[in-house]
Design a protein that fits this description.
- The structure is a single chain.
- The chain is mostly helical.
- Helix content is 77%, strand content 0%.
- The chain contains six helices and no strands.
- Helix 2 runs parallel beside helix 3.
- The two termini are 18 Å apart.
């Protein structure tokens, strides 16, 4: 698979970029994409963790709980961290397939998006410390 540290660094770098993008989306009030980018941030960090512990290419999935389970970090997560993964999950799918876009948009206020970014920062920091 190549240099393990380089692959892990790649996933961390693009996760950090996605978190910066979430903050840019908040600043421009594109709330639907704040949730999407928060999801992407955590997804990529879970893939970095998967690479670190499994030493293989992560599976092609966007399911955060599945990624966490496959990499064995799920058992280390607190209940609130698991709840946060569940909260992020629909924000990825509905952005790509916006069948309920209007409902999701109405639920994503500035305050909720600020909270999403804050929780994403907390969880991303925690995952990085596990690496």
């Amino acid at each position: 698979m190549g240099d393990l540290d380089a692959v892990v660094s790649y996933w961390i770098d693009i996760a950090d970029y996605d978190l910066e993008t979430a903050e840019a989306m908040l600043a421009t009030e594109r709330y639907l994409y704040v949730g999407f980018m928060c999801h992407q941030t955590i997804e990529k960090l879970l893939k970095a963790y998967y690479v670190r512990v499994i030493n293989d290419t992560p599976p092609y999935t966007h399911n955060l709980s599945r990624l966490a389970s496959l990499s064995s970090i799920h058992g280390e997560l607190s209940e609130s961290q698991k709840d946060f993964l569940d909260m992020l999950e629909p924000l990825n799918v509905e952005t790509r397939y916006p069948t309920q876009k209007d409902m999701i948009l109405k639920s994503l206020t500035r305050e909720k998006c600020e909270a999403l970014i804050g929780m994403t920062k907390e969880l991303s920091g925690w995952i990085k410390r596990q690496l």
